[in-house]
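Support request, priority: normal
Reporter: lab tech (M.K.)
Component: structure prediction queue

Hi team, I submitted a job for Glycosyltransferase from Bacteroides faecis yesterday, and the status page still shows it as pending. I've pasted the exact input below so you can check whether something in the sequence is tripping the parser. The sequence length should be 367 residues. Please let me know if I need to resubmit or if it's stuck on your end.
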Amino acid sequence: MKIVELITFLAGGGAERFVVDLSNQLVKENETYLVTILDDKKETEVRNFFRSEVSDSVHYVNLGLPNGLKLSSQWRVYTVLKALNPDVIHVHMISTLKYSALATGLLSFSKKVYFSVHSDLHNGYDKGLLRLYCNTLGRLGRFKLSCLSEKNYADFKAFYSRTPVRCITNGRAPIVSTDLFGAVSNEVNQLKNNASSLLLIHVARCHPVKNQKLLIESVNILVQEGYNIDLIVVGAGFNTPEGQSIVSMACDRIHFVGPRKNVADYMLNADIFCLSSNFEGMPITLLEASLAGLPAVSTPVCGAVDLIKDGVNGFLSKSHSLEDYKNALIKAIDNYDSIKANAMSMKDNSPYTIAECARKYVEYFNE
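Reply from support: The job had stalled in the queue. We restarted it manually and it finished. Here are the results:
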C-alpha cells in the first residue's frame, strides 16, 4: 500500500511526534511518504525539530510553500499529491487541512482520504472547515475520520452524530535511553536539591493551553509546605516574555532546561510526570511517560482521563483549580510507591504502542 502522511511541518509538538512515529512504523510494510507543506528551509529549528528522526526508509517530501492560504499553494499541494498517486492520504491537524482543502476535496473521489482529530473539540477545534468536511464528504464516506482517545471519540460523536468515525488511540514508539542518558543523570543530580528529592517532570512548550502557571504555583506551595520535591520543565518558549513571566514566579526547586530531543532520558531519570493542560486530545508526552513506567498527575483532559486510572497509576485533579491540582500532586507524592509499582507493571502490556496504533490504521485504510 502507498501511503502519504500529510502535515504542515515537523515542529516539536505532539502531533508531529506522532506523525514521525507512525510513518516510521508504517514504512516497515508499506511504501510511505511523509509530506510537509511549508518551506522547511525557513525557521529551520522549528520546522525540522523531528526531521532527523524520520526513518531513511520513509520518503520525505517538502513542498516548500510560503505561509498564506493562496490558491497557487492549494494547487501545488494538489498536483504533488496527484503525481505521487498514493492509495491513502492521511491528513493531520486543522492547519494542514486548510492548506490541502482543494487537494483533499478533489482527490477524495478517487483516493482514500483520512483525517485524524488531534485535539479537544470543546476548545476551539470545531472549526468551520472541519464541520464542512464532516457534514459533506464525511457523511458520504469520502473523508474518513479518526479520533485519538475514547473521550475525544465520544465528543466527536456528540458533535457529528451522522458522520462515521473510528477511535484509534494514539501510540508511541518504545521509550529507550540514548547515549546521553549518563550526562542527563548527572545534570538531574546536580539540579536536585538533594539525593532523596522526588523528581517531577513536565514536558511541553510554553503556551497558555499547557497552563504551566497552574503547575508552577502548585509546586511552589508544596515546597513551602516542606515537601521534598524538585520539578524539571522540558520545552521551548520559556525565553519569550510570556515564558519569562512563568520562570520568574518559580521557586528554586523548579528547573527549566529548554527543548530537548532526548526526552526519554529525562523521563527515565524522573519519578512523576505532570500535565496541567486546559485541554488536550491525547497527549503524546503522557503516552511517553506511561511507556517509561512513570506515574502521572494530570488535569481531567481528553486522553488523560482514559490513560490514568485514578489512584492506580496516577491521579487526576477534580478540576483545573489550584487547590484540586495541588491535592492531586499531594496524593501522588504520599502514594508514590504504590502508583510507581502499578505504572511499571502496566507499561509492558500497554495498548498505546505505535505498533498497535499503526496496525489499526492499516486495517482502517484497507476497508
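Residues 213 and 246 are 6 Å apart (CA to CA). The chain has a mean pLDDT of 95. Let us know if anything else looks off. Ticket resolved.
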